[in-house]
Each structure stands twice: as C-alpha cells, then as structure tokens.
Design a protein that fits this description.
The protein has about 170 residues and is of the alpha+beta class. It folds into two domains: about 1-35, Ubiquitin Ligase Nedd4, Chain: W; about 40-160, Nucleoside Triphosphate Pyrophosphohydrolase, CATH 3.90.79. It has helices spanning about 80-90, 150-160, and strands at about 15-20, 25-30, 40-50, 50-60, 65-70, 70-75, 95-105, 110-125, 130-140. Strands 3, 4, 5, 6, 7, 8 and 9 form a seven-stranded mixed sheet that branches. Strand 3 and strand 4 (about 50-60) form a beta hairpin.
Length: about 170
C-alpha cells in the first residue's frame, strides 16, 4: 500500500512496501523511515425538520445519484461540530447547530473515521450545492436509495435516542 509519493521526504530514497508490526506500510529503502498514513475524519448531521430528515443526493463518487446524510471532511485544525455545520451549509444552504454526538465509527480497510451528530435546524432556504444533485427532507421510514449502509445505522441510532431507547 504505497502512497502517491514514491520517495522519502527525509532522504529522497525510494519507498517500498514492508510489513511493520503485522501491517503493510510504505518504508524508505535507504533510511528505513516508516510512513504512517493518518485517517481522514468525516462528519455527518442528522437534521430533523417537521418530522422529516435532511438527505442529499450525491453528485460525486462514491455513490453518485444515491442519497446520504449531509456532511463531509473535517479540515485540519477545525472543530468537528463547526465542520459539520459548514459542510451542511455548503451542501444545502441550511444553517444548523450540531447538538449531540450520535456515534463515532470506522470500518476495516476504510481510511475514514465517521462522526455523526444530532443537529438542530436553524433556518435557510434549501438548495443543493455543487457536490450534490438535490437536497430534500424525507420521512425517516421512507428513505430514498442510500449510498452508504452506515447512514441507515446512524438514523436507527438517532431514532432510538429520540424515542428514549438507548
């Protein structure tokens, strides 16, 4: 699993795949520096308004044409709650407030750590941004085709908390 960079940032030696502590990682063939890749952090929001939840139709891969919870990547140094609020505004033009942490999840082999928040609708006029084909509110029991199975799991967690179940 070599990165796009094939040369060491320390000595310019060539990177090669090596098994380090049971995991294949890029390492320099000259100075032995091991390259550790940081995970990406993404955040999504469950936004309820008039009994319906906000979903966006993806205009980009993965899952182009399918629907997902609004959100995106957290920038380095950005507060996660502000990141999800920013991403929702970019994708839908809506203002929200991330209120309660719902879940933190990851999957084997996937570089993304996903943080989900229950969020409060504040206002704005719903319209899709450049990364989405459409944005709409849906009845939680009648969702459109989802891009990611994790969204259904997040919504189940949200419904259980809303209904007083843990």
């Amino acid at each position: 699993m070599l990165p796009d960079d094939v040369y060491c940032s320390r000595c310019s030696g060539t990177l090669e795949a090596r098994v380090i502590d049971g995991v294949e990682r890029p390492a320099c063939s000259t100075c032995e520096k091991v390259i550790y890749h940081d995970p990406k952090v993404s955040a999504v929001a469950v936004v309820e308004h008039d009994g319906k939840v906000l979903m966006v139709q993806r205009a980009l891969e993965p899952g182009i044409g399918l629907w997902s919870l609004p959100g995106g990547y957290v920038d380095r140094g950005e507060v996660v709650e502000r990141a999800v609020e920013r991403e929702v505004a970019e994708e839908t033009s809506l203002e929200i407030e991330a209120t309660d942490l719902l879940a933190v999840s990851s999957e084997p082999g996937n570089q993304v750590i996903l943080i989900s928040y229950d969020s409060r609708f504040i206002g704005g006029e719903l319209k899709g941004g450049p990364e989405v084909s459409d944005a709409s509110f849906f009845d939680p029991s009648d969702l459109p085709p989802l891009a990611f199975p994790r969204d259904r799991q997040i919504l189940e967690t949200w419904k259980n908390r809303r209904d007083g179940k843990r």
